Amino acid sequence: MYTVAVTGGAGLVGRYIVQRLLENEQIAEVRIIDRQTTSREESRRVKTYVIDLNDRKPLENALLGCDGVIHCAHAPFPIVYSKSKEQDDQMWKDNLDACEAVVDTMISMNIKNLVNIGCAYSPIPNEDNYGLAQDVFLDYPRNYMLDAYGESRTRGEMYARKAAKRGSVNGLFLRPTFVYGQGKSRKIESIKELVQNSTLPFVNGERRGMHQFIYAGNLAAIAEKSFFFLLQNPKKFNGEIIPENIINHVSFRLFFEKTVGFPNKKLRLLLDSKPEVSQEDAFVKYANPKSSYTMEAVKRSTIQG
Fold first, then answer.
1. What is the sign, positive or negative, of the torsion defined by CA atoms of 208, 216, 11, 71?
2. Which residues of 175-196 are buried (b: 16+ CB within 10 A; e: fewer)?
3. One biological-process term from Gene Ontology (predicted)?
4. 244 near 268, Cβ under 8 Å?
């Protein structure tokens, strides 16, 4: 039985991950760590800590007795430019300082297992695109398409990667593209507001809408599986993924490059599992105004569901 902390557990991705973990009978307790409150009530298996990750003493208390951390917390995606230096400073604190605080606290408390939910767009340089940006997965890019936001998230992830390389933590680093799902999302709400105000630019050309999306429920399943990978064989999975059905290992930096937004067949080859919700069904759920996010847990005895 394991205890897992989910930073940013009140956000869109965090809510789905918390839900997913509570459906697993191997999880004894989930700790939600967020500056924002959550509608989920505390129970024997759920503890809530309304704290700032940069306040390290309360963070130590929240992580006491944990077997691992799934780090989802980050500054809001910059749909519009920040309006002040204070907002920029807060963004760096939320993306870089908070990640450093989590990693440092884990090391000091000997908590080994970290699943980091990053961002596929953050390390992309100017005049590049996600599909062609393979060379930036292991190092810093020459510049950042998302400017300070991209740099702050990339540097936060790299801080954790260096700790994993030293063996101070065992980490798997996920870089999803646009995440969507039922429930409130500041990113999606900001985009909707731009559309309603006719301020979202229209780009001509048949490839103008070629973004990649992942359903939050499927991302939660990947995060859960990553956590158990680290528990089962940390030396094998720390920093990379090795599919059992091929001889040559695949560096984990290629993980999302080959899965998110691509045919489910490729995802099955890498993870030896099929996404539980197809992209078509997930979009139908999201588009249905009567469909809502649920917190009803369905117990599962294994991580496979």
1. negative
2. bbbbbbbbbebebbeeeeeeee
3. steroid biosynthetic process
4. no
Q: Indicate the residue type of 135.
A: D
| Intra-chain end-to-end CA distance of the chain, in Å | 17
The tokens for 29 are 């307790």
Report the alpha-carbon distance of residue 229 to residue 235 in Å, rounded.
Answer: 10
Q: What is the dihedral of CA 71, 159, 98, 87, to 10 degrees?
A: -120
Q: Contact at 8 Å (CB) between 45 and 28?
A: yes
Q: For residue 190, what are its two tokens?
A: 């900001």
d(CA 45, CA 43): 5
Please give the single-letter amino acid code of residue 183.
G
* 93 vs 206, more confident: 93
Tokens of 11: 């956000």
pLDDT tens string 76-108 = 887 776 778 888 899 999 999 999 999 999 999
| Tokens coding 283 | 């979009």
Q: How many CB atoms lie within 10 A of CB 293?
A: 16
